[in-house]
Amino acid sequence: MTLGFMIRGEVNEERLLKAVARALGVPLNEVARFSIDSESDATILVEIIHRTAGFLTDVSLYFDPQRIPSIATWSSIDVAPPIAHDLEDEVLVSPPADDAYANAAYTWYLITPDGKRFIADELEPDQRGEVIEINRATLRPT
Fold first, then answer.
1. In the chain, where does DSSP find H-type helix?
2. What domain range includes position 86?
3. Is the pLDDT of residue 1 over 80?
4. Which of these, 12, 110, 106, lies nearest to 20 by C-alpha position?
5. Confidence (pTM)
6. Cα distances (Å, whole numbers) of residue 102 to 57, 80, 105, 116
7. How far is CA 33 from CA 11, 51, 99, 140, in A?
8. Are residues 61 and 107 in contact, defined by beta-carbon separation less than 8 angstroms?
9. Domains contained in the chain, number
10. Which of 45, 84, 86, 101 ranks highest by number of CB atoms within 10 Å?
11. Could you report the per-residue pLDDT of 77-97, keeping only the tens digit for each?
C-alpha cells in the first residue's frame, strides 16, 4: 500500500520518520528510509524527495497493510492531519477519487497544523510536476 503527501517546509529525515511513526502508531524502529540500494525489514518505508520550490518535502509511505491492520483502510487524507500537527506545517494531499468537487489534474486538499481542511487549486500547474504551489485565493473549507 502507498500513501503520499507533501509538506510545505523542508523537513529533515529524522524528524519526518518520528512524525510518521507517531501518526501511524508504530515504534520508531519500524520506520525506515526507502532505499533501492539496501534491503529493510521495517514495517513502513519512507521515500523523501526534496523539491526546490512550492511544497518542499514530497513523501511516499510504503507498507504491507497485513502487517499493520489498524491502518489498512487509511488513505493519505487520514495520515495528513497528524503529520501536519506533529510537524507544525501545512500538508497537501490528493483529493479522494470520489470527491465530486475536485479536479484530479490540479486540485489538492490542504491540511493545516490545527486540523483544518481546505480544497485548493494548484497555482500555475507545472506539467512536469516539479513545483507544487497552491492558489490561496481558491481555498474552500471541506
1. 13-24, 76-87
2. 2-141
3. yes
4. 12
5. 0.91
6. 23, 18, 9, 17
7. 13, 17, 31, 34
8. no
9. 1
10. 84
11. 999 999 999 999 999 998 877
